[in-house]
């Protein structure tokens, strides 16, 4: 919970630091590299690009949001990220997969 002085557990974990924003950017870059490496055999690339946007937005939401607990709307959106991005990627990956990195 947020203390009277405005600090919360996110400050203790360093979630508001430059390092945390850098790690979120590295995560987003990793998603881009993964899609670039595995998108040659998919039926359409746009769902994978949308999955990058959704995952990157969720990562930056975790780092940039204020307050403990996280606001309900943000919590729900971040919670749904895995299901949404999995559905997007699995909808265009060939069956059977050509490379295990596509999963």
TrEMBL record:
Arranged from A to Z, the UniProt key words for this protein are: Membrane, Transmembrane, Transmembrane helix
Transmembrane segments annotated in the record for this chain: 20-38, 44-64, 76-97
Q: What is this protein called?
A: Uncharacterized protein
Species of origin reads Rhodococcus baikonurensis
Q: What is the lineage of its organism?
A: Bacteria, Bacillati, Actinomycetota, Actinomycetes, Mycobacteriales
């Amino acid at each position: 919970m947020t203390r009277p002085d405005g600090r919360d557990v996110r400050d203790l974990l360093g979630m508001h630091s430059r390092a945390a924003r850098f790690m979120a950017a590295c995560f987003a870059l990793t998603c881009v590299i993964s899609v670039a490496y595995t998108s040659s055999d998919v039926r359409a690339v746009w769902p994978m690009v949308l999955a990058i946007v959704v995952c990157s937005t969720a990562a930056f939401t975790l780092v940039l949001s204020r307050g403990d607990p996280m606001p309900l709307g943000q919590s729900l959106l971040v919670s749904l990220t895995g299901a949404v991005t999995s559905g997007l990627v699995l909808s265009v990956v060939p069956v059977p997969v050509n490379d295990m990195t596509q999963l």
